């Protein structure tokens, strides 16, 4: 595959290699996702068919895979190694880089998920942790020592996802909505205040007792709050989506070297519901993988703070009759995040199993 972006050649301290689990041999009930081959973007004719495929994917499942995205295998691997190194730091080394309650209140959830009071609020279990790196970070937050020599690489990954992969998806959206490219691109204008971030995640294997307690759930059903979420494909099967046509949970299959992309609430609101923010969750992996650490590298794209979350002025949405705001009140992105954090539209999608008092948990305290 074409490798548009590779780790830079400057010598850095070596990060131990993370050995990922082998793909599962179990036959799981997988969802069939549309795959976008991004190499088709270059040619105007194949670009049009790619736009059709994107539309098909977001209508059907709100989840897709992307191949030929341009991030080299080497860089993907390096990011996973780095995520592993950061997420396995001892608690005392993480402590200075935890999000503060003030940052949390503003929706600038930066650094490690707090382990203290704030973190205990939602009954967060200690097997799951994350570290957020803001894209727009005027305060220039300091990173843990292990990450500092790699900040260039992290910025390279963020920059490539934003300026290349996301830009292409936004251009395909412009084709679908029959509007100028700039109309869509401006919703994610670079350098304006926004809450986008790259997230490193770890899911540590749990005891049978904890799995019972949390009903095999690692992350309860939810929809993401932004536009597109990009997940580096990873071999541990655990991600499931709620398939709307059957109302059943289906597994997302591991497709090596791809990105898994899903639609968030902001994009649903911007498209009058044409693009679907699909409910998903993370559950206990199959038996041949459940004793392995699961490392996540995820990019959350979001409109800039000032963008109003109402349908984009589009002839296509008008023809479909879905050009009116979906919600009674129209928020801009910043206010929407704040409202969501404080209980607006709080949804409980985890409806497939009986709820046990005290056992339900929302590890992100509603921060998606
Ligand atoms: O770990 C995963 O596969 C998905 C995580 C997720 O849904 C999220 O962080 O919003
Ligand atoms: Fe999610």
Automatic annotation (TrEMBL):
<keyword id="KW-0408">Iron</keyword>
<dbReference type="InterPro" id="IPR050231">
    <property type="entry name" value="Iron_ascorbate_oxido_reductase"/>
</dbReference>
<dbReference type="GO" id="GO:0044283">
    <property type="term" value="P:small molecule biosynthetic process"/>
</dbReference>
<dbReference type="GO" id="GO:0016491">
    <property type="term" value="F:oxidoreductase activity"/>
</dbReference>
<feature type="domain" description="Fe2OG dioxygenase">
    <location>
        <begin position="194"/>
        <end position="303"/>
    </location>
</feature>
<keyword id="KW-0560">Oxidoreductase</keyword>
<comment type="similarity">
    <text>Belongs to the iron/ascorbate-dependent oxidoreductase family.</text>
</comment>
<dbReference type="InterPro" id="IPR005123">
    <property type="entry name" value="Oxoglu/Fe-dep_dioxygenase_dom"/>
</dbReference>
<dbReference type="InterPro" id="IPR027443">
    <property type="entry name" value="IPNS-like_sf"/>
</dbReference>
<keyword id="KW-0479">Metal-binding</keyword>
<protein>
    <submittedName>
        <fullName>Gibberellin 2-oxidase</fullName>
    </submittedName>
</protein>
<dbReference type="Pfam" id="PF03171">
    <property type="entry name" value="2OG-FeII_Oxy"/>
</dbReference>
<dbReference type="InterPro" id="IPR044861">
    <property type="entry name" value="IPNS-like_FE2OG_OXY"/>
</dbReference>
<dbReference type="InterPro" id="IPR026992">
    <property type="entry name" value="DIOX_N"/>
</dbReference>
<dbReference type="Pfam" id="PF14226">
    <property type="entry name" value="DIOX_N"/>
</dbReference>
<dbReference type="GO" id="GO:0046872">
    <property type="term" value="F:metal ion binding"/>
</dbReference>
């Amino acid at each position: 595959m074409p490798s548009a972006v590779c780790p830079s050649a400057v010598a850095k301290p070596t990060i131990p290699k993370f050995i990922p689990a082998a793909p599962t041999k179990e036959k799981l009930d997988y969802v069939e996702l549309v795959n976008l081959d991004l190499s088709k973007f270059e040619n105007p004719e194949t670009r049009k068919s790619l736009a059709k495929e994107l539309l098909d994917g977001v209508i059907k499942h709100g989840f897709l895979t992307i191949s030929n995205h341009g991030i080299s295998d080497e860089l993907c691997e390096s990011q996973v190694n780095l995520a592993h190194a950061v997420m396995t730091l001892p608690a005392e080394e993480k402590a200075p880089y935890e999000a503060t309650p003030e940052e949390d209140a503003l929706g600038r959830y930066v650094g490690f998920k707090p382990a203290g009071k704030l973190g205990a609020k939602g009954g967060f279990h200690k097997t799951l942790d994350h570290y957020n790196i803001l894209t727009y970070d005027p305060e220039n937050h300091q990173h843990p020592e292990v990450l500092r020599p790699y900040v260039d690489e992290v910025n390279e990954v963020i920059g490539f996802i934003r300026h290349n992969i996301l830009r292409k998806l936004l251009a395909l959206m412009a084709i679908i909505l029959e509007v100028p490219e700039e109309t869509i691109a401006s919703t994610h204008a670079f350098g304006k205040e926004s809450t986008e971030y790259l997230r490193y995640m770890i899911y540590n294997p749990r005891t049978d007792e904890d799995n019972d307690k949390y009903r095999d759930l690692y992350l309860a059903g939810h929809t993401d709050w932004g536009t597109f979420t990009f997940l580096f494909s990873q071999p541990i099967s655990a991600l499931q989506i709620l398939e709307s046509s059957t109302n059943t949970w289906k597994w997302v299959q591991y497709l090596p070297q791809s990105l898994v992309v899903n639609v968030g609430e902001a994009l649903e609101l911007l498209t009058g519901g044409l693009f679907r923010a699909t409910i998903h969750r993370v559950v206990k992996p199959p038996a041949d993988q459940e004793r392995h650490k699961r490392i996540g590298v995820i990019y959350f794209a979001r409109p800039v703070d000032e963008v109003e979350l109402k349908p984009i002025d589009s002839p296509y949405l008008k023809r479909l009759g879905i050009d009116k705001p979906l919600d009674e009140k129209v928020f801009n992105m910043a206010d929407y995040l704040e409202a969501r954090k404080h209980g607006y539209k709080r949804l409980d999608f985890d409806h497939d199993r009986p709820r046990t008092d005290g056992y339900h948990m929302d590890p992100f305290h509603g921060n998606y």
